[in-house]
Amino acid sequence: MGKIRGGLSRIGSVVSVLLPLFVATTGIAAATPLGAYLAGLHAEQEGDYRAAASWFEQALKADPTSPELIRRTFLAEAAGGNFDRAAALARSALRLDPTNAAAQLVLLVEKMKAGDVKAALAEAEALPASGLHRFVAPLALAWTRMAAGDLPGADAALQQLDKFAGLAPLKFFQLGLLYDFAGHPNKAKANFKETLAATGRLNWRLTEAMANFYERHNEPAEAKKIYQRFIQENSGSELAESVLDAKPAGMPKPLITSARAGLAEAFFDLASVVNDPETLYLALFYDRLALALRPHLTLAQLLLSDILSAEKQPQSSLAVLAKIPSNSPYYWSAQLRVAANLDALGRTDEAIVLLQKLSAQYPSRAGAAMQLGDILRENKRFPEAVEAYNEAVARLRSEGMPERWSLYYSRGIALERSGQWKRAEADLLHALKLKPDQPFVLNYLGYTWVDRGQHLQRALKMIEQAVALRPEDGYIVDSLGWAYYRLGQYKKALHYLEKAVELVPDDPTINDHLGDAYWQVGREIEARYQWRQALQFGPEQKEIQPLEAKIARGLGKVVKAGGG
Hints:
The chain has about 575 residues and is mainly alpha-helical. Among the domains are: about 1-100, Serine Threonine Protein Phosphatase 5, Tetratricopeptide repeat (Alpha Horseshoe); about 460-564, Alpha Horseshoe (Serine Threonine Protein Phosphatase 5, Tetratricopeptide repeat). The chain is about 70% helix and about 0% strand. The protein is built from 33 helices and no strands. The protein has helices spanning about 10-15, 15-20, 25-30, 35-45, 50-60, 65-80, 85-95, 100-115, 115-125, 135-145, 150-160, 170-180, 185-200, 205-215, 220-235, 240-245, 260-275, 280-295, 300-310, 315-320, 330-345, 350-360, 365-380, 380-395, 405-415, 420-435, 440-450, 455-470, 475-485, 490-505, 510-520, 525-535, 540-555. The radius of gyration is 28 Å and the shape is globular.
């Protein structure tokens, strides 16, 4: 490994070319340190950080002083949740780069867990004010200062979040938790209210924190109002109802009972803020920090399962969910996630049985029936999906809420695909009534009308609106091109269909549509090429024969002028 150490960074830059050669079989990857390194890179790209750590550890044994291997192994172990090993590697990483903020955070967590407040505070004070982890320093400094008994210093640290746009809700929420923990209820209440004013809408954690605060300060009516407001503002979610049903009687415990728990909450809250596709690794890292400090923080466990599912690691997600006991107030939410992961693993029948069991066990809730309908629809079991959606609709107590649009949209698709167009049309129109500017509903209804030769001008306007809302969605752009095609405006159709193929190159329907448009403007060779492409991209069985017929005979007489 020593001979190739200097080339690791160059290898990393061309890994997409080398990986097929080196990890084609497990034997090749395991045979050499280079193979182990490349296998680790591959696992890292796939979001399987525990496998990545295992491969990098193998390579590191052969070259224990390689800066590249130390850095990658440390990050993989931290992302995989192996904090004892990550902490050991963090020291090596910091010797190589004293500004490595991720390593500083892992050591900070280690020292907080050990109760070494002075050392933890020193780590927090050394965190950078700029760079990738710049948002963390005020949060870490606040709770380590609080651990040292410095409430004014903790407040001052959180005020530093004002430097960053969009973090006012996080600042006020953390101040609310801080002052609640410190025994200053008036300041805590004021900051919780500031959080709500800054967000304009209740999320679940704020709801839970405020209700918990009101209940502990003899204001049960205010707690009830907060829960009711959340349910009204988030009518598509049964989270509050499921938690309240499982809530133990009596006075609740405070959400934060130690500075260590407060720091865990801060990491979890930040992970929730950055939980987006572009920053998924950061969300995973911060959530792992939270769970290292507070392993049974259930909301952090649920977030971790969601991140692992998003990283296409359903088996790892299931392992996290298995830690949530049946008496947890979040068990219902966990089981819905279990079903989604089972389906992702191809264990669809198990997922269906679980959702049917949950639906029968909780007859007042629609969530399991809705998810059952989604799974059946995605597996093309459309009549069964319709029945599941029917059950969900029957259980809803407020059909008029805008958040319900997705249920009618989903049932409309299942009805249309099972040949019940009139009912499908009614559901899609109802979904549009609930959410008039929803691009997926506009597109699906508009496209179906176009495909059926109905309401063409209205359908065109709807699809144009959908494209304006989502201009980079290839399927919606295809719908607009197809609408122009059905109206005989072939030049306009070509413009949008070519763009749609650029956005989604491997969709058989879009390639088929583009082939039809090419034929209509006399570009017969290109038309046959697109139809052949459509055949290669796995069309449905009923679409294969028409494509073959078009390749053989075309569409008949072409429009030399190009139409439209």
